[in-house]
Amino acid sequence: MKKYTDLFLDLDDTLYDTYGNAMIALKEIFESFHLEVYAGDFDTFVQHYWRSNTKIWNQYAHGKITRDQLDQQRFMNPLSELSDVPPQEAFCMEVNEAFLNLCVVQKGLIEGAVHLLENLREKGYRMHICSNGVRKNQIIKMTSSGLIGYFDTIITSDDVGIAKPAIAFWQYALQQTGANSKNTLMIGDNYETDILGAQSVGIDGMLFNRWQKDFIPPKPVAFVVNELKEIEHIL
Ligand SMILES: [Mg+2]
Prior knowledge:
By secondary structure, the protein is α/β, with parallel strands linked by helices. Helices cover 51% and strands 11% of the residues.
């Protein structure tokens, strides 16, 4: 396929196994901070954690909460839900910091990520990360997991001051990379932030349908794949 010259790629849960890596870190902090005092057993805790996590990331993507508020709420919300006596804010921030420090050094990737990046690099695509995250953390994650060398540009919401799916995020990414929207494809696991966001500025989308295999996008998407290994046969 010759149409695309530039690929925008989401990092978390598209290339980097953020969910799997976070589960390892959650298990560790659950034990070291004795979160059973608030949350009972680990399974109950992670169930509440992920429900709350999806909600706060959605709020962040829509500018309803700041990154600092996201950090404050990450553990406060699920632990408060589960406990009669809410935890102290300082304690939650301490847990949050330990959690993030543990997360960023995890090396877990989505199956086929390196193979795919090698293949796309050989084909001559310019590749850019477009991520809703803190630049410093994303760089550490990409370095720990060996992804860093594949990318020409790394754009994070932290750099832009606004998150995907906002139009301003994509305008900034196009400007920084020098890419033309018509020749660019955005690949990501989040239909709303990655795909609808990119489409709003005329960038085609490729949905990596990781979560819900029977998901049918409400609006047409250029490509939908269920596994990374399908992508090299398309591009
Ligand atoms: Mg993602």
